[in-house]
Structure formats: structure tokens, C-alpha cells
Fold this sequence. Notes:
- It is a single chain.
- The strands form two sheets. Strands 3-2-1-4-5-6-7 form a seven-stranded parallel β-sheet, sandwiched between helices. The protein has a six-stranded parallel β-sheet with strand order 10-9-8-11-12-13, with helices on both faces.
- It is α/β, with parallel strands linked by helices.
- It has 14 helices and 13 strands.
- The chain has helices spanning about 10-25, 45, 70-90, 105-115, 130-135, 165-170, 200-210, 225-230, 250, 265-275, 290-300, 315-325, 325-340, 345-355, and strands at about 1-5, 30-40, 55, 95-100, 120, 140-145, 155-160, 185-190, 215-220, 240, 255-260, 275-280, 305.
Amino acid sequence: MRVVISAGGTGGHIYPALAIVRKIKEKEPNSEFLYIGTHNRMEKDIVPKEGIPFRTIEVYGFNRKQLWKNGKVLYCLLKSKRICKKWLKEFKPDIVIGVGGYVTVPVLSAAHSLHMKTFLHEQNSVPGKANLMLARKTDKIGVSFASSISSFPKEKTVFTGNPCSEDALLKKPMKKSEMGLDDHKKLVLIVMGSLGASSVNEVLKEMLKTVDKTPYQFLFVTGKADYDEIAKIAFPANVKVVPYIDNMTCIMKNVDLMVTRAGASTLSEIMALQIPSILIPSPYVPNNHQYKNALDLVRENAAMLIEEKDLDAKKLMASMEEILLSTSKQLEMKKNLSHMGVSNSATKIYEEIQKLIEGKR
């Protein structure tokens, strides 16, 4: 299979794209890939390390506050579409896949104009503007939340789940002791993303200073931006502070509770691994999509939600104890999570792509 894939801007787009690439490689080892990303976002650092041929285009999102700046945006968009058409003609892909971010607009638009088969994947409960724009030009659309189906043309939309979920199930578990923790104590994993969230970290610092008498242990992933400052604090012995964890999913397999943002990839892993969680959605993302992602779980009694504006140390501690001290609450969350996720998401996406290539619907 010859595959052009595009996704960019955030890990929430890039990591699902890489999960799809890995699944295609597993099913068809001789497949060839071309990844098209932006010249100045994180995919330029992540994708080449995976050994995937990578090319960049200069493209930007529309500026809705300073409309006069969109002249350059439109120029780069049209220029990038011409470049992508040239690359697609040279590469001759069997399928062109978009996994989110404005970089996908010129790529899939070029593929559509060349009558190439296209597949679009949406990770969030509320679709991004790029995916909504591309929906009518795309042959098939996969969504991560069942609630997203109504946002797209029904006849070409399928509930696939997020491919990161299948990746999570395949990862080897990491023992708590590998992180310097007690293998026999309950573990709360607290993580607010690779850079962290300074406003939330202030509350977490206050709370974690008071947990010395609790029977659980805490792994606090501060994010790289705040680590040096937080590492100076004398927390109780049952608190471990780290800036970041490579292969976070491996330790997630041995946690009893997560306190986290509500990014689509994180939630897909929580659903796949059936981890009770307290979600603190970031209010700083487009369309408030993390809050809406979280609501999908909360409505099913599969997670708890605290909005950042309502967060304080006392409320967070009470919410954690409500879950950790109740086996029935934990079992209810796990059961409800088991009905929400798609355990073979990457495989389902591969199968949908195969149908497209073979001309089936």
C-alpha cells in the first residue's frame, strides 16, 4: 500500500496518525509512506524520528481576530495545494489520509482534485474546523466518539474510535517500582500534558503537601515548563515528582486513578485501559473541545469532571477519595468505560481504508 498521511500542530493529531501508520505497516510490511506536515510545528521533530519520509509545507490557521493577516494565510494555502498536487502525482498513493490540523486542508484538497481516495479521522467529540471543511471532499470519515457521527454526512461516517486506544492495549505494562514507587500501594497519576498547566499546578502543589497520611501514592507529572520550580518543594514521601514520562501508557496500565486534561488521545487510552479518572479540561483550546470530550465520559458515569474555574485543593482531594475509597465506584467506572471505547480502532481504520482502495463501500 502506498500512503500519504497528514496531521499536525498537536500530539492529539500526530500520535493517532502514527498509530495508523504502525497498523498499516503491521498488516502490509512493504507499504510506503509520505507524511506531509507543517514546517514549524511539533510534527517536524516527532515524525522523522519514526523513520517515516517527511515533507513540510508552509501553512497557517485562519486568524479570526486580525482578519487583515489572512492574506498570507490564503496565499500559503493555495501555494501549498499546488505543491501537494505535485507531490501526490509523483508519489501516486493508493490512499490519502488526514488526521486533523489545518495542514490537512491543502493535502486532502489536492487529493480530491486529483480524484484520489481519501480518508479523514476526527479525534474530538466536537469536530475541528479543518475536518468540517474537508468532510464533503472526503470519501470516508472515521470518528472517535459516537456523538460525533451527526456532525458529518451519515452515509460516509463510521465510528472507529481513536487508534491510540489499540496502541495502548498493546503496550507492555511498567511496574510502579520502575518509577521508584511501591508496587503494592494504590497509585494516582496526575498529568496535565507535556508542558503542564501552571494554573492547575498551583492547586496540585497545595493539595500534594497534605497527603502524607493518605494510604495512596502520587506520581505528579509537572510538565517540563514548571518542573524545576516544583522539584524544589519538600513534598511527603508518597509523592513522586517528574517532568515527563516517555511511554506514559506503560505506567497508566498500573494506576488506580488519573487526574488529567481531556485531550482526545488521553481519553481514548483511559477508555481502552478502563482507568477511573477525574478530568480537568483545558479551557484554552478551540471550541472548548476538551470540556465536550469530557462530557461524553461523564454522561456515562465513566469519569468525574471538575472545570478549572471550580478547581481547588479541597474539592480535588474529596473527589479523589470518593473514587479511591469506593470499590463499587471504581468498578462502575471501569464497566462503563468498557462499553465506550473501541479496542481495535487502528484495525477498524485499516479495514475501512482497504475497502476504499478496493472500491467497496
